[in-house]
Amino acid sequence: MEALIRKIGVLLLAGYVLGCQGTTDQETNFVCAPERFEDGAVIVLTTNYETSSIDLFHPNCPDEVSKNRVVASGDAVLRRVENRPIVVNRGAESNLMILNQDLEVSAQIPLPGCGPHDVLALDGDVLLVSCYESASLFRVFLPSETAEEVIDLQDYAGADGLPEMDALAADDRFIYLTLQNLDRQNNWLPEEPGKVLIFNRESLELENEVTLPCDDPYTQMAFADESSLVVGCAGTWTGGREGAGLAVLDTQTLNATMLYNSSELLGRPTHLDFIKDGVQLLVTATPSPTSAWDVETMQVLSLGGDEIQQVYSERGFSLGGVRAWAQDKVLIAQRTLDSTGGVLLLNTKTAEVEARWTTGLLPSHFMIAQ
Questions:
Q1: What's the pLDDT at 89?
Q2: What pLDDT, in 10s, does the model give residues 224-264?
Q3: Partner of 153 at 20 to 30 A CA spacing, among 7, 103, 297, 302?
């Protein structure tokens, strides 16, 4: 599925790649841009789908961006262990880059054949990694910079031999893992609805599985409250919107239900964040009515209770991640090819863009220092 999304991105943004060659020099004449990942500083993963880099800025410091602090693969995501950023290099690169607060690479740990997708801390020095190109999860030991296969999920593999593991989440007792169950030999179509596997956090033994009421669980999972685990499902990217929407798993009863369908969300969920008190920020993509390979609009939705509020919208394959910054203030990754692109600070009450930071490549998603 990530290969499919990268293909869409490359097709829609090829012109940007040509236009941004050679823009890798760091600025040095900063007044207030942060040097370290601390005190509310924000790192943003930027990409042209051939390579990625990490830029650093602070929402209280308009205009200034420290660019290209770390270079990563074209298929990478940011994850966090405590306050340590981790770059997950997916696909063929298949490794973890452990960063310190100076954004220096303190370790780069290979995960042969894994294609890592998500990372969860079992404790401060041991990580669990979901793998997209393997039927086994990996356990990573940071002090020794080594990894081992730890849980075999071959029984959940489909016709292509893989279960397509994706997101990880945990509470005090259990670990939760989504399976997309796609057939990469048949245009990445879902072979069956998505699943959540539930493991004992101490023993890593599989204790339960839950079938979701939707296809292709695509976003990260997030707890809306102590027992409500939310995930966005993309459905079938190359077909209609059936099977897409926002689902919730009650971790007490193990009952999974739909919160919102794709019509209510104006499209497929692509990114999920929480503000507080159960209020969710969701980015969705409305497919083009003329081409399954195109996106008509993308929008940021605020979901709370029964209310869905659209707080921002842009045409095309235009929006990456979203992250709440302060009361009524939201960071949005806008990957348009004109002067409006970059990281936006949006006031959700007034719908006014209060600040904009121009990144070296297309902004994808954020992490805020604790």
A1: 97
A2: 999 999 999 999 877 677 899 999 999 999 999 999 999 99
A3: 7
Ranges of beta strands (E only) in 184-287 are: 189-190, 195-200, 206-211, 222-225, 228-234, 244-250, 255-261, 268-274, 280-287
Q: Which of 257, 283, 256 is nearest to 269 (CA)?
A: 283
pLDDT beyond 50 at 18: no
**Residues 55 and 17 sit within 8 Å (Cβ to Cβ):** no
Contacts of 92 (CB under 8 A, 6+ apart): 115
The residues pairing with 80 across neighbouring beta strands, listed in sequence order, are 85
Q: Which two tokens stand for residue 123?
A: 């404790």
Sheet holding 319-326, edge to edge: 319-326, 329-334, 342-347, 352-357
CB 156 within 8 A of CB 164: no
Residues 57 and 36: their CA atoms lie apart, in Å, by 9
Count Cβ atoms within 10 A of the Cβ of residue 97 and give its class: 0-12 exposed, 13-18 middle, 19 or more buried: buried
Q: Give the per-residue pLDDT at 5.
A: 55
> Which helix H or strand E contains 355, and what residues bound it?
strand 352-357
Q: What is the pLDDT of residues 43-59, one digit of tens each?
A: 999 999 899 999 999 99
Do 34 and 59 touch, CB atoms closer than 8 A?
Answer: no
Q: Report the amino acid identity of residue 106.
A: S
25 pLDDT exceeds 50? Answer: no
- In whole angstroms, give the CA distance from residue 195 to residue 282: 21
